[in-house]
Amino acid sequence: MSRLKNKYYEEILPQLMDKHPGKNRMSMPVMKKIVISMGIAEAMKDKNALPDHIKELTQLSGQKPIVTRSKKAISNFKLREDQPIGLVVTLRGKRMYDFFDRFCNIVAPRIKDFRGMSKKCDGKGNYNFGLEDQQIFPEINLDEVKRAQGMNIAIATTAETDAECIELLTALGFPFKI
Questions:
Q1: pTM of full prediction above 0.85
Q2: Which of 22, 30, 154, 173 has the fewest beta carbons closer than 10 A?
Q3: Bridge partners, residue 14, by sequence
Q4: For strand 31-39 and strand 151-157, is the pairing parallel, antiparallel, or unpaired?
């Protein structure tokens, strides 16, 4: 079992149970999944961009991404039908906890001028944020990166409110602004 998952069940869950005595153990918030997505429409001018970004996303997530394709052609955006426009990876279970642990302890401190993440959630107990560069992940070989590519990371929890989500992520060690 993952180090962070052990910490959740042995330390964090009992603390949450003490803070909310009216709730049972199964109604406590927990992370469900982490979705990492990359928009690569601009990068598609280069034929080798798609395999490069697939390789990078595979390295930092631990599993192969799904290529999302356009559903219809839009001439103003120079977009053809069935053209690759993004990559998506959904992490669950051990990989989710391992990625979250690596992000909080290794990747976040490597972000330039990092002061913490905003405490704004989506209103339904989930947290989303974006990164401007994939090169902050230690798994990626900097010599092989041809262009900086940003990504969106969405953390889905079972929390019903934003306050519960922030409380859970703070307990897990997520770097929020003070």
A1: yes
A2: 22
A3: none
A4: antiparallel
